[in-house]
Design goal:
By secondary structure, this protein is α/β, with parallel strands linked by helices. It has a single domain (2-8, 19-327), classed as Alpha-Beta Barrel (TIM Barrel). The chain contains 13 helices and eight strands. It has helices spanning 2-7, 22-28, 46-57, 77-86, 102-115, 144-156, 188-198, 211-223, 242-251, 259-266, 271-286, 303-313, 323-338, and strands at 33-38, 62-65, 91-96, 119-123, 173-178, 202-207, 231-236, 292-297. The protein has an eight-stranded parallel barrel, surrounded by eight helices. α6 links the parallel β4 and β5 (173-178). The longest helix is centred in the C-terminal third of the chain and has 16 residues, at 271-286. The chain is globular, with a radius of gyration of 19 Å.
């Protein structure tokens, strides 16, 4: 463990701003950050995206545009980011290695940066067999770690993987996913260390429903000094019922839901309300854990619940976040830069 920690002294990834994006500014200021997932529509109507984004923007520092999560096809992450940047929102482009090779991915990074996307989350991606088109041909030319390294090289060295020069490199804030709640547990902090070494500057975790397990994980993360090398946002989300929780635990890989949580739901008169309250309670405990920099809220097809959960948790106390505030701040920054 000490040897791993020592290797990070040469990688001060948190020194100095990388992008001009809101998420990085909030994290570097020491404020507790909030991100959330926009579940992409099965539609070509931009209003379907804008309606969801408007709800999330009231409480979020950045909005994740998922990239065919679960290997199911929806509007692309790139398309959603194009819409969100045009409307003045701060998106997180998710890139899954499942569907595109290194040539396409590097081109997407440049295109996204040119549109004003400042945040990229690098993912290996779910296997095609988990989705509704299992006959699709998987690519996996890169994985999440090699993708992080590739984009970092584009940004910091202004070069493609081929070695060819990039005239204007992308100024992107790099993120990755982590799952503290799946075995082998001892290996999870070491996996995080490898992603940070590859270039990850922020981390969004899988759903957390077990605070004690998170505390143990963060204890090792702090011992390794990894919390000083990246910003960790812990995944949370409401459970609709005890039945839904049992189904998720049995069918969604990597999601750990303790018996005590399911029993609490099962014993509630209004299980949906209790699921929201459990999420709020978890956020209140998560914010007290040293080394945690924020939360990442995932509420599938329930964006309206995100605002209620975040507001009731109190983590945005004394902070005002909405679309108009973000646009005003952006106009002020642009005017300052010009002057």
């Amino acid at each position: 463990m000490n040897e791993v920690a020592a290797n990070f002294s040469a990688h001060p990834v948190l020194e100095g701003d990388i992008s001009t994006g809101r998420l990085e500014r909030v994290l570097r200021s020491g404020r507790f950050a909030v991100t959330a997932e926009l579940n992409p529509p099965d539609s070509a109507d931009p209003e379907d995206t804008f309606r969801q984004a408007l709800v999330l923007s009231q409480v979020c520092d950045a909005i994740n545009a998922t990239d065919a999560s679960g290997a199911n096809c929806h509007m692309s992450s790139m398309g959603i980011c194009a819409l969100l940047t045009r409307a003045g929102y701060s998106p997180v482009l998710q890139i899954s290695c499942r569907d595109r090779n290194r040539i396409a991915i590097q081109g997407d990074v440049l295109g996204a940066a040119a549109m004003g996307v400042h945040n990229i989350l690098c993912l290996t991606g779910d296997g095609v067999e988990t989705g509704d088109q299992p006959g699709a041909k998987p690519v996996f030319d890169l994985d999440s770690t090699t993708l992080l390294s590739a984009i970092r090289g584009m940004r910091d060295d202004a070069r493609f993987l081929s070695g060819r020069r990039i005239s204007t490199p992308p100024d992107v804030f790099l993120g990755a996913a982590a799952n503290p709640f799946a075995p082998p547990y001892d290996w999870r902090p070491l996996r995080l260390a490898k992603k940070i070494e590859a270039g990850a500057q922020f981390i969004q975790t899988q759903y957390c429903y077990d605070i004690e397990m998170l505390r143990r994980y963060m204890g090792v993360v702090r011992d390794l000094g990894l919390d000083e090398k990246c910003f960790i946002l812990v995944g949370v989300g409401p459970l609709a019922s005890a039945k839904a929780a049992r189904w998720i635990r049995a069918n969604v890989p990597g999601v750990h839901i303790p018996d005590a949580v399911i029993e609490r739901l099962a014993g509630a008169r209004d299980q949906k309300h209790e699921g929201k309250q459990i999420c709020i309670d978890l956020i209140e405990e998560i914010r007290e854990i040293k080394g945690v920099s924020g939360v990442h809220v995932m509420a599938y097809r329930q964006e309206h619940l995100v605002t209620e959960i975040i507001q009731k948790s109190g983590i945005l106390k004394n902070r005002i976040i909405n679309a108009e505030t973000a646009r005003s701040a952006r106009r002020t920054e642009e005017a300052t830069a010009v002057s």
